[in-house]
């Protein structure tokens, strides 16, 4: 029992220190690096907010956000720039890292501006993916078709 109390005192002291160090959005912006294998969309650019799709649920990132590592799911990343403009990008998958110093790294497998997407092409891709699933004969082929359907459905939703 004494050991438990000592451990709790040790933990609570560290927790209090950690809470005192971190503030609430005391910085008006954060630094964003957003890249895909073929391009860099933002390279240490200061932004106000970022909204990202994640498998644990979509969430917003503000300055002084708690450090986080998350997996991106297919969907739309929205970047709120300091000048008030908003830019939207479709990502197929990737990771987001939020650091203690208000820097954020978004690494996407694919990233394209939403305004360049073609809804008819997205719907055609979805139909092809559904057809592949229906004709899949192995578990690997089924899994690949299901991933393609998930990305295609997110593409269609992003276009609408």
TrEMBL record:
<keyword id="KW-0496">Mitochondrion</keyword>
<dbReference type="GO" id="GO:0045259">
    <property type="term" value="C:proton-transporting ATP synthase complex"/>
</dbReference>
<keyword id="KW-0139">CF(1)</keyword>
<keyword id="KW-0999">Mitochondrion inner membrane</keyword>
<dbReference type="InterPro" id="IPR048937">
    <property type="entry name" value="ATPD_C_metazoa"/>
</dbReference>
<keyword id="KW-0175">Coiled coil</keyword>
<feature type="domain" description="F1F0-ATP synthase delta subunit C-terminal">
    <location>
        <begin position="117"/>
        <end position="158"/>
    </location>
</feature>
<comment type="similarity">
    <text>Belongs to the ATPase epsilon chain family.</text>
</comment>
<comment type="function">
    <text>Subunit delta, of the mitochondrial membrane ATP synthase complex (F(1)F(0) ATP synthase or Complex V) that produces ATP from ADP in the presence of a proton gradient across the membrane which is generated by electron transport complexes of the respiratory chain. ATP synthase complex consist of a soluble F(1) head domain - the catalytic core - and a membrane F(1) domain - the membrane proton channel. These two domains are linked by a central stalk rotating inside the F(1) region and a stationary peripheral stalk.</text>
</comment>
<feature type="coiled-coil region">
    <location>
        <begin position="119"/>
        <end position="146"/>
    </location>
</feature>
<feature type="domain" description="ATP synthase F1 complex delta/epsilon subunit N-terminal">
    <location>
        <begin position="30"/>
        <end position="111"/>
    </location>
</feature>
<keyword id="KW-0809">Transit peptide</keyword>
<dbReference type="InterPro" id="IPR036771">
    <property type="entry name" value="ATPsynth_dsu/esu_N"/>
</dbReference>
<dbReference type="Pfam" id="PF02823">
    <property type="entry name" value="ATP-synt_DE_N"/>
</dbReference>
<comment type="subunit">
    <text>Component of the ATP synthase complex composed at least of ATP5F1A/subunit alpha, ATP5F1B/subunit beta, ATP5MC1/subunit c (homooctomer), MT-ATP6/subunit a, MT-ATP8/subunit 8, ATP5ME/subunit e, ATP5MF/subunit f, ATP5MG/subunit g, ATP5MK/subunit k, ATP5MJ/subunit j, ATP5F1C/subunit gamma, ATP5F1D/subunit delta, ATP5F1E/subunit epsilon, ATP5PF/subunit F6, ATP5PB/subunit b, ATP5PD/subunit d, ATP5PO/subunit OSCP.</text>
</comment>
<protein>
    <recommendedName>
        <fullName>ATP synthase F(1) complex subunit delta, mitochondrial</fullName>
    </recommendedName>
</protein>
<keyword id="KW-0406">Ion transport</keyword>
<keyword id="KW-0375">Hydrogen ion transport</keyword>
<dbReference type="GO" id="GO:0005743">
    <property type="term" value="C:mitochondrial inner membrane"/>
</dbReference>
<keyword id="KW-0066">ATP synthesis</keyword>
<keyword id="KW-0813">Transport</keyword>
<dbReference type="InterPro" id="IPR020546">
    <property type="entry name" value="ATP_synth_F1_dsu/esu_N"/>
</dbReference>
<dbReference type="InterPro" id="IPR036794">
    <property type="entry name" value="ATP_F1_dsu/esu_C_sf"/>
</dbReference>
<dbReference type="InterPro" id="IPR001469">
    <property type="entry name" value="ATP_synth_F1_dsu/esu"/>
</dbReference>
<dbReference type="Pfam" id="PF21335">
    <property type="entry name" value="ATPD_C_metazoa"/>
</dbReference>
<keyword id="KW-0007">Acetylation</keyword>
<dbReference type="GO" id="GO:0046933">
    <property type="term" value="F:proton-transporting ATP synthase activity, rotational mechanism"/>
</dbReference>
<keyword id="KW-0472">Membrane</keyword>
């Amino acid at each position: 029992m004494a050991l438990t109390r000592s451990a709790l005192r040790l933990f609570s002291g560290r927790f209090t220190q950690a809470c005192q160090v971190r503030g609430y959005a005391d910085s008006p912006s954060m630094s964003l690096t957003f890249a895909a294998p073929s391009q860099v969309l933002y390279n240490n650019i200061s932004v106000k907010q970022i909204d990202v799709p994640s498998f644990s649920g979509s969430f917003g990132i503000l300055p002084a956000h708690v450090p986080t590592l998350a997996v991106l799911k297919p969907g739309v990343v929205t970047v709120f720039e300091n000048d008030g403009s908003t830019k939207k990008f479709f990502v197929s998958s990737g990771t987001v890292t939020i650091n203690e110093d208000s820097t954020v790294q978004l690494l996407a497998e694919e990233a394209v501006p939403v305004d360049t997407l073609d809804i008819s092409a997205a719907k055609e891709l979805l139909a092809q993916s559904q057809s592949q699933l229906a004709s899949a004969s192995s578990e690997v082929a089924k899994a690949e078709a299901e991933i393609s359907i998930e990305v295609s459905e997110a593409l269609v939703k992003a276009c609408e």
